[in-house]
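Collaborator request, handled under Task 6.
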Amino acid sequence: MLKERLKLGIIKAPGTPSLSVIMQTAALQHLNINAEYKAHEVTSENLEKVFKELKKEKIRGLNVTMPHKINIISLLDELTDKAKHTGAVNTITFKENGKTIGDNTDSNGFWSAIPEGSRTNLLNKNIAILGCGGAAHACAIAFLSHNVSSVKIYGRNKNKLNAFKNFLKNIEIDLLSNIDLSNTHILVNTTPVGMYPNIDQSPLTKEDLQKLPKDALVYDIIYNPLETKLLQSAKALDLKTLNGVEMLVRQGAESLNIWLGKDIAPLEIMRNAVVETLQWSVST
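Structure tokens returned to the collaborator:
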């Protein structure tokens, strides 16, 4: 008798692109696991309804994308320490006893994607993060847990900035209109500005980027397109750049390992599936 098909998936906003289905399906096929990974488009209004329906279907695991990473927490039974510290959930496991456990693999995925040369000796370095949503929480936590001197969050909404400050008291906050990158070692964009299809947009001007030190890293966690306008501007200034592909792959691999209970996610297979899909979409 065939083993029951493993059900996995992702909760995402309607109309938003997601490569997780392609990436996770490639991994499951490579591992020869009888499983499916489906996308479920969910609005904020029907999040609870869809979540309860999926729970009834005996799904094993779900990824969660913005804007649901924070709102999903109230529907869960337990949170891991990582999820509690981050204040956001991107990975859910459904236990056989009916319990739902929220976890966060964004922080580890974000951190491990940074080239070693840029994430060592951060004791006296300053970090700037654009945005104050769930992804920014994960990124800030990653830096704070590695003894960074200063993490500053820039946003457009004062209320969201203040809420971020209340959650993570050992950070600085300011409006994006006041941004100053003159002593910034790593700049991270966690906003959706510049994401497909709005590829001509950038959260910062070239003049803003010109204030960065010459050895600074500009890290845009957007992965579609592979090179956002922000990264194009940074590259034109001979700054180091990093897109969101490696973070996507590494957080997805950790999620898969959690659901399978083994450290077997094929990173290279997942990475190739993402990059090939993105390169194909550009050429067509």
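The cover message to the collaborator said: "The first helix runs from residue 20 to 30. The two ends are 43 Å apart (CA to CA). Please let us know whether this matches your experimental observations."
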